[in-house]
Amino acid sequence: MLSVVIPFGPVRLRAFSMLKLAFFTFGICVLFDLAAQPAGKAPLPDPEVIVADQQKFADALAARSGLKAADIMATLAKAKYQQSVIDTMTRPAESKPWKDYRPIFVNDRRINDGIAFYRENRELLERVEVTFGVPAPMIVAILGVETNYGHTPTRYRVLDALTTLAFYYPPRAEFFKSELAQLFMLKGANFPYDIDDLMGSYAGAMGWGQFMPSSIAQFARDGDGDGKIDLWNSLPDICQSVANYFVAHGWEKDGPIALPATVAPNARKIEPGGLAPVYPLQQLQEWGYTISEKLDPMRPSTLLEVEGPNGPEYWIVFENFYVISRYNKSPLYSLATFQLSQAIGAAEKQ
Question: What CATH architecture applies to the domain 16-91+153-227?
Fold first, then answer.
């Protein structure tokens, strides 16, 4: 839960050398901490290199945002390096096979909690469904997978997580620098929170729906009309923001998401390069992949193969499945969210 905080005021430094010393001291402390960690950890960059990189970041952000570079650097100086963020980033749950990934999110407890959440908030969820065209069970499933309906504790300060990934994780440094920059630019009348205190995931995602700073800026909605966006405590804001995200990425109202495919013995082996629906459904059927439902043969689709408990599973997936993947690019994430929404929706129809 997010508490109300007092906005931080400008911090003025007498000389850059003082700030450089602070960062150097911070870097030395981090290196001492690293020495106590198990062998095999990659050494951290030179503290002076980090300071220079952060100064470059601050200058560029200041030039385009109107913020002061010294204030940006002063805030970055409060960030704490988190080795566990790097560790988690290098071994995400999505690296598991489907047979091990599915039980994490599609299980009796998460289904039952989702049904209970739906019933407790039926009026709101169905109103959002009518407004945006995104099924209520899908909105519930996103909240279930992302934060277990708001019950998953947030372990990291967003500032710590994004700073760690922006300056200590080269494979995706540019992406996380962009998100860190957006974090600095979020603060305003409709997002009146001090970035020093915001809590989120190891990747810097926030709220029940786990929105990155750029997603908050582009897609978050003030659903309760109180003049601010609260993705921690306002269910109207949370549910409308998730639905708006889907619509903005091309959600098709009443469109299919995914269907299990029957594979002919002589089916053509295909390996799609992604989840974008690039094949007419008829083409997949001619290649030996068929579904039980009748759909427009020209509807765009693609094939998904996952490792199930009894061997390969094949799914034909459509545009709405691809839209779910815009939330998280892993096909396992999209499939788990879809199946969780199916289970919740089926219970509501009984």
Answer: Orthogonal Bundle (1.10)
